[in-house]
Amino acid sequence: MKIIRVFPRQTNATPTDEDVRINAPPSLFDEADEVHISVAFTWDIPQAEFLYSQWSNAGFNTKMGGPAFNEKGGDFIPGMYLKKGYVITSRGCNNNCWFCSVPRREGNELRELPITAGWNILDDNLLACSESHKSAVFEMLKRQAYRPQFTGGLEAKILTKKDAARLFELKPVTMFFAYDEPADYEPLIEAGKLLRQAGFKSSNHQARCYVLCGYRGDTFDKAERRMYQAWEAGFFPFAMLYRDFKGEYKQDWKQFQRQWANPFITATKLKERAIA
Question: At the top level of CATH, which class does the domain 73-275 belong to?
Answer without folding.
Answer: alpha beta
